[in-house]
Structure formats: structure tokens, C-alpha cells
Specification:
Helices cover about 60% and strands about 0% of the residues. The chain has helices spanning about 25-35, 50, 65-70, 75-80, 90-95, 105-120, 120-125, 135-150, 150-160, 180-215, 225-235, 240-245, 250-270, 295-320, 325-350, 355-375, 385-395, 405-410. With about 425 residues, it is mainly alpha-helical. It has 2 domains: about 25-120, no CATH class; about 125-395, no CATH class.
Length: about 425
């Protein structure tokens, strides 16, 4: 009846107030149904998931509110919610849910939707999360590398470049893969990818701040720089993995992959900067000798990444919650294993002097590595950046609480 008055228990009169219009995102609901199953709508807001979580803050805890937003298809709220990224998907909430609503998978789907929402171009981000696009995803890095090699001759002629080949190396890779070409290709692609990633991170941060203003959130408690530094310590120190009881076994696998990649990055930077690197006293020779410090570091780092990725796969296959991960999870793990396996195969074929096998497998290795870089703004690798932005935002407003009832929670009530 027009003009009727509605009074909620303990709330003010709403006579003449137009109720809010809820516009569910149907595409988002369909993606949730694919990833989390149809039972996520069975959530009846009992709060078991939030009370189970070791990381959920005392005020407005997650994932209870996120489950309500997901059931209503409120994607716009979820993609501007920092709490989605405070979750590490230990799946304690999923195991404890009395209705089988799979809150852990819902939070994972929300993170995936956030990456797609803020990535540029968004169409490429969608493709990176669709299983039927796998042939295209595999073809892109191979096509880029093949195009660069095809243009090698015209570029060398136009710029007067000579192929880098030294008599000290019996079978130099540089005959087919000159350093100037690989460095130019990888640095150009990496620079473009980092710009795209930065744009997505800034758009995400703007969304978080806009949501904070709309709900009249608390004033910041810390400065931006202090919050960012705290977020970096939390992320790279894996603090929350050690705090969350169920996720603690995952700390080893994630640490192996993270620090293994850091080791490989150091070796890569050493190779790229060799012509101007003061640490290189003699003429630069690549591939490295087997007992070269850089070769030892590369092998140790590669072994760490391989072991970490295998542990992640085993965990997914044996997860007591039944969660096996989304397509993007397996795409990333598969890509990591391909890079490591082809890298070790390249090294083995080189020492066995197998021709042309080692050049073929080196081409595959380079393409796989390039694929990881190209997919950075769209794959689960992007979670590193988005999580740091979200943690910094939460730290700035005092929403991170590693221990229930601890000092961090008490500060928010002062």
C-alpha cells in the first residue's frame, strides 16, 4: 500500500523511503555456480564461517557478508571489498558450513572476478579464465617468440647488428637466439605487462577507497607508506599462512615457489645486465658452467619452484573440503611446471650436446616463460599485487587481525 510505514526492530521509520534496488549480475552468478557449485545460495547467515576463520576481523567479519552479497549477485560490492583478499582459502569455513555453501570457493571466485573487473583489457582477462581458450593462451607466447625470431634478420640488417657467437662455446645458443633479441623481446613485454598491472592495481585501489567513502568507513589510522610497508612484510613474510591453522601446511609450498621465483629473477637480471654488470669481470659466457654460482642458484631455485608446485597439486587433490581449485589455478600450476621442466631439460640436452633437440626445447622453454609473463595481469600471479593493495588498504584502516582477540582487534574499538 502506497505511503505505508515500515518500522524495523530497533530502527527508524521508513515512511516514504524508497527501498534500495538490487540488480544482480547474472553473469557473475553463473560463474559462481561453475566454481562454487549450486549450493552457495543455501547460506542462511548462521555465521559459522566467520567464527571458524582465524583471520576474520571482529567488526564486519568475513566471509559471512560476502556470502550474502554473492547470493544476491552483488558483484560490484565484492570487487570493491578488501576483505575478500584477507582470506587465504584454507577452507576451514567450507568444511564447517552446515549447509555446504562452500564459502572458500565463493571467496576465490570473488577474487577472480576482481582481477577480471580491473584488468586491462578486460576481454583478455576473461579469456585467461576460460578453459575453452586454452589453445589460444598457449599459442600467444609461441607466436610472439616466433615472430621475434622471424624479424631477427631484417632487424640485424637494418641496424647493422652481428650475431653474438664466441669461439669459446662449442654450441652457442646465440647463433639462433641472440641475446639482444631475447632481451629486447622479454624486456618490452615485461614493461608493457607491468604498466597494465599497475593500471589494474590503481583501479582496484580507487574502487576500495570509493566503497569506503560510500559506507562512511573509519578514518585511516596509518599513513599510506607505513601501510604499504606493513602489507609487504605480511605478504612476503607469509604471516597469515602461519596464523591460519588450516593454511599452515601451505606455507611451505608457497614459500618455495615465491622464493624460488625470486632466485630465478636474480639470475635472469644477472644475465640481462651482463654487459654493464660490474660483477662480470671477464667476457660474458652463456650458458653458465655447471659449477658457476649463478648456475647453482638457478638450479636450486628451479628445484624449489618445482617442489612447491608439486606440493600445491598434492594439496588440491587431497583437500578435505573437496575443493580442487578453478581453471586458473591449474593453468598457473601447469605453466610453472612447464617452465621448470623445460628449463632443466634444456640444461640436460645442452650438456649431452644433443642437436637440434636442445635448441627446440630451449625455444619451448622461452615460450613458456614468456607465457607466464604475458599472463601476469590476468592469472593467479596477479593475486600477489591485488592482495598487497588490499592488505595495505586494510592495514591503513586497522582491519587486519592476525589473532582473534589480539591487539589489532582491540585497536579498532578504541
Amino acid at each position: 500500500m502506497a505511503g505505508a510505514e515500515t518500522v524495523l526492530p530497533g530502527g527508524p521509520s521508513t515512511r516514504g523511503v524508497r527501498p534500495p534496488l538490487v540488480e544482480p549480475d547474472l553473469d557473475f552468478l553463473r560463474s559462481l555456480r561453475r566454481q562454487a557449485g549450486p549450493d552457495f545460495k543455501k547460506c542462511f547467515q548462521c555465521g559459522t564461517c566467520s567464527s571458524t576463520c582465524d583471520l576474520s576481523p571482529a567488526d564486519h567479519p568475513f566471509p559471512r557478508k560476502e556470502m550474502a552479497w554473492a547470493a544476491w549477485g552483488l558483484k560490484d560490492r565484492l570487487v570493491r571489498d578488501a576483505d575478500v583478499w584477507l582470506c587465504h582459502q584454507c577452507n576451514d569455513c567450507t568444511v564447517s558450513c552446515p549447509r555446504g555453501g562452500r564459502p572458500g570457493d565463493v571467496m576465490a571466485a570473488a577474487r577472480e572476478a576482481t582481477v577480471i573487473h580491473y584488468a586491462l583489457p578486460r576481454a583478455l582477462a576473461r579469456i585467461a579464465h576460460e578453459p575453452h581458450s586454452l589453445p589460444l593462451l598457449l599459442a600467444i607466447p609461441f607466436a610472439l617468440l616466433a615472430l621475434a625470431l622471424a624479424l631477427r634478420g631484417p632487424i640485424e640488417e637494418g641496424l647493422g647488428l652481428a650475431a653474438v657467437a664466441g669461439e669459446r662455446i662449442v654450441f652457442p645458443y646465440s647463433v639462433f637466439f641472440p641475446h639482444w633479441l631475447l632481451n629486447g623481446l622479454f624486456l618490452t613485454v615485461t614493461a608493457f605487462v607491468l604498466l597494465v598491472m599497475l593500471a589494474g592495481a590503481l583501479r582496484f585501489r580507487a574502487g576500495l577507497c570509493a566503497a569506503e567513502r560510500e559506507r562512511n568507513g573509519p578514518e585511516p589510522l596509518r599513513g599510506r607508506l607505513a601501510s604499504l610497508l606493513a602489507a609487504l612484510r605480511i605478504a612476503f613474510g607469509h604471516r597469515d599462512f602461519g596464523t591460519c591453522t588450516a593454511a599452515r601446511p601451505r606455507m611451505l609450498s608457497h614459500s618455495l615457489v615465491l622464493y624460488g621465483f625470486l632466485g630465478l629473477t636474480i639470475v635472469t637480471l644477472f644475465v640481462i645486465t651482463a654487459p654493464v654488470n660490474p660483477l662480470v669481470r671477464e667476457s660474458f659466457v652463456y650458458p653458465f658452467a655447471f659449477f658457476s654460482p649463478m648456475k647453482l642458484l638457478a638450479n636450486a631455485a628451479g628445484a624449489a619452484v618445482f617442489a612447491g608446485a608439486l606440493l600445491m597439486i598434492v594439496r588440491r587433490l587431497t583437500d578435505r573440503s573437496g575443493s580442487r581449485g578453478a581453471f586458473s589455478d591449474w593453468l598457473l600450476l601447469g605453466g610453472i611446471l612447464l617452465v621448470v621442466v623445460t628449463g632443466f631439460a634444456t640444461e640436460l640436452f645442452h650438456y649431452l650436446r644433443l642437436e637440434p633437440h636442445r635448441h627446440v626445447i630451449y625455444f619451448v622453454h622461452l615460450a613458456c616463460a614468456l607465457g607466464l609473463i604475458v599472463s601476469l595481469p590476468y592469472s593467479k600471479l596477479a593475486h600477489v599485487v591485488y592482495r598487497i593493495v588490499a592488505i595495505a588498504h586494510a592495514e591503513r584502516r586497522g582491519r587486519t587481525a592476525p589473532l582473534k582477540g589480539g591487539i589489532a582487534k582491540e585497536v579498532r574499538h578504541v
